[in-house]
Specification:
There is one protein chain. The protein is α+β, with helices and mostly antiparallel strands and 84 residues long. Helix content is 56%, strand content 13%. The chain has four helices and three strands. A three-stranded mixed β-sheet has the order 1-2-3. It is elongated and about 50 Å long.
Length: 84
Amino acid sequence: MSTITYSDARKNFKKVLDQVHENSEAIVISRKNSENAVIMSEQEYESLMETIYLLRSPKNAERLLESIKQIENNDATERELMNE
C-alpha cells in the first residue's frame, strides 16, 4: 500500500484514482495535523465489506477459515456447479 501526501493527492487526484482502480491497491493519504485517510476502489471496498459481514458470525468465520486451510494444504475437492 503506497502513501502520498494530501497536497500531492489533491494536485494529482485523477491520477491517484486511476492508480487505485488499475492496481486494485489502496492508497494512504497522509495529512500533517489530522488523521490519515485511505482511498480504495469501490470493488475492493465492497469485497472488504462482504468479508467483514461473513466473518461476523463465529460459525461462518470458522467454516471459511477451515476452507482456506484446506485449499492451502491442497486438501480441497473441486466440484462442478449444477445448472438449475
